[in-house]
Amino acid sequence: MTGPAPSAAGAISLAVLGDSGGHSYQDSLVFVAPHDRGGAFRPLTFQWTEVLARLRPDEIDLGPWVRWGSRNRVARLRECLGLSGQRVPRKEDYLYNFAVTGAACEHLMGNRIRQAPRLVALMNQQPERWRGGVVVIRVGSNDFTSQVELAARDPSAPALGAVTAHCAREIARAVALIHAAHPSVRIVLVGVAGEADDPLYVDRWQSAEETANFKASLDQFNGAIRRLAAGDSRIAFADISAWLAARVGSRTAAGKPDYRTIAIGPRIRVTHSVGDDPRNSVLADDHSGVAMNALWAQSLVQQLIDDFGLPLTPIGDEEVIGFLEPLFESATAPGS
Predict the structure, then answer these.
(1) DSSP 3-state assignment of 52?
(2) What does the domain layout of the chain look like in residue ranges?
């Protein structure tokens, strides 16, 4: 990789820390057969980062698309020599996207990957680029999911509380590190959606007690992240759980699934179901489909405008339709 490309005039630099909720789907170094994200529909399958890069390339700058990074051992050696540790692991993605599939809260500051320190080291190379820039931190899903059965049984369980406290602490440390080096950077903290409304688990947790417990557990986890944004105008919380429920519905108080089809324009219909075809909300490997990512990219841009007053152009419904329609048409074309 050569040096960072200059930002488009007036573009806002945006970086990403976290897990598969931010890792770009067209990464051909990590997502290779038999682990392709999107399967036969891979060419039509995009993460929200990739949607932003296509719809707002002159306003939002994620950095150039690069094959860049190294193994942890190499990164640590570089850091010992006073060089940039680069990105761990090596992947094909936008330069400022450090999110990687499988990451947990511990990977923000430590445990080999050290996303936040290595991102800050890269940001320090061009501090002027980050005056008024944005970092999206979307992590915690893997931590919460590890306690999902406990969450459905007992929201007050000490183990669940420990996971919640751990994630809040690690996210807070990452925020502090970023702001110590780049105090004007805006940070979006994205909550987790849990598993109860994941169509992959539609047959589980179908009692009123489990549903109430799950909601309480999720509220506690997201509440701890939300509190990190309180009182600081540079930090915003994105409630992904509420966002998802507003679009696809949720479970009833009795725990029964009550989901609806999403209509996007006159021809696009997305069901809350699992499969690589773009008409499903969730991919076969249990990650958001292209339609949900396009809608969340739209929502994120609006939040950046509303919460931070950034000079961005809202992504209109017609733009979302215009982006998705060719993909849906390709999915139904003969031989596709």
Answers:
(1) helix
(2) 12-148+165-196+226-246+289-326
| Cα–Cα separations (whole angstroms), residue 325 to 50, 291, 318, 322 | 16, 10, 10, 6
Per-residue model confidence as pLDDT tens digits over 213-240: 999 999 999 999 999 999 999 999 999 9
Q: How many Cα neighbours within 13 Å face the side chain of 157?
A: 19
Alpha-carbon span 212 to 207, nearest angstrom:
9
| CA neighbor of 299 nearest in space, from 312, 277, 315, 287 | 315
Q: Does domain 12-148+165-196+226-246+289-326 have CATH number 3.30.420?
A: no
75 in Cβ contact with 118 (< 8 Å): yes
Distance CA 315, CA 336 (A): 29
- Nearest alpha-carbon partner for 196 in 164, 231, 137, 151: 151
The answer for residues whose C-beta is within 8 angstroms of residue 327's C-beta and 6 or more apart is 44, 278, 290
- 187-217 per-position pLDDT tens digit: 999 999 988 889 998 888 899 999 999 999 9
pLDDT in tens, 116-143: 999 999 999 999 999 999 999 999 999 9
Q: In this structure, what are the phi and psi dihedrals at residue 183, rounded to the nearest 5 degrees?
A: -65, -20
Angle at 237 between CA 122 and CA 284, to 5 degrees: 80
